[in-house]
Amino acid sequence: MPKVASRPWRVVEGGLYDAWNGLTVDEALGKDVDAVSGATYTSNGVKNSLIARLKAYQKQLK
Question: Can you give the residue ranges of every domain in the chain?
Answer without folding.
Answer: 22-61
